[in-house]
Fold this sequence. Notes:
Layout: E1 3-7, E2 10-12, E3 18-25, E4 28-39, E5 46-52, E6 57-59, E7 67-72, E8 77-82, E9 91-101, E10 107-112, E11 116-120
Parallel strand pairs: 2-11
Antiparallel strand pairs: 1-3, 3-8, 4-5, 4-9, 5-6, 7-8, 9-10, 9-11
Amino acid sequence: QVQLVESGGGLVQPGGSLRLSCAASGSIRSIADMGWYRQAPGKQRELVAAVASGGTTNYQDSVKGRFTISRDNTKNTVYLQMNSLKPEDTAVYYCNAKGTEGWPWPRSFNSWGQGTQVTVSS
């Protein structure tokens, strides 16, 4: 199985910055897409940003110009650099990864982290 462990969440004031990390481990053959989702109380979970293996990125409109997603394939890790944070960014952020795992025959996987809390408040 592929496990995802998130880190970097916490409390920050409006206008501040935070960097989230998510490391994947397990019997990984390859990771195709990695992304960050978030869910605020009373809201649906939504895609924040995603990055494909080739480097193509996709952002929610509300975070464009403020957030940057990146990945390090040698470490099976995805990052989310969050700048100019706003109170409306407050949510639990979840890491997601899709790819191929397993031996001796490959299987597809779609794994989620347990979430990390990001709170933006003065």
